[in-house]
Design a protein that fits this description.
mainly beta, RmlC_Cupin_sf, six-stranded antiparallel sheet, about 40% strand, Man6P_isomerase-2_C, globular, Cupin domain-containing protein, Jelly Rolls
């Protein structure tokens, strides 16, 4: 009988079609913590495999920059807390939406956006990782003196 949770995996302990070389490709590491003026982030995928993954903690009342990315697409999901997401094409006409645990938003490249923590907030971010992804940010407004820069 086939295990429905592992459909396609042999139940006799063999590897089936998977070669030992595939299993040997697993790699392990540690998250990289980065302090930010609004909280901190833990980078768990650094782009070397084609994507970036972060856990982002924002202190209550703090905000990330009003920003956009020229190439980078992002998908966010709230783990705990509440966020106010402002987004749009024009800084003067942003739409605001409250995000709660389990809510997901996809932000394509060039969409202006800003996340504000209503209370303490933890969200996960998955994004594309084109060369230069760390500098792919245009800040339109920033509470912490980083407007117009790509500084972390």
């Amino acid at each position: 009988m086939t295990d429905t949770l592992n459909a396609g995996t042999p139940t006799d302990g063999s590897r089936g079609d998977r070669s030992p070389a595939v299993a040997a490709r697993a790699s392990f590491g540690r998250t990289v913590g980065v302090a930010k003026p609004w909280g901190h982030e833990a980078l768990f995928a650094d782009g070397t495999h084609g994507y970036v993954g972060k856990l982002i903690f924002v202190r209550a009342g703090e905000s990330l920059s009003l920003q956009l990315h020229a190439q980078k697409d992002e998908t966010l999901t709230v783990v705990f807390g509440q966020a106010r997401l402002e987004h749009g094409e024009d800084p003067a006409r942003l739409v605001s939406r409250t995000l709660r645990p389990g809510d997901v938003v996809h932000l394509p490249a060039t969409v202006l956006h800003r996340v504000t923590a209503v209370g303490d907030l933890l969200f996960a971010e998955a994004s594309t990782a084109a060369p230069g992804w760390r500098e792919d940010v245009v800040r339109f407004a920033d509470r912490y003196g980083r407007e117009g820069t790509t500084k972390p």
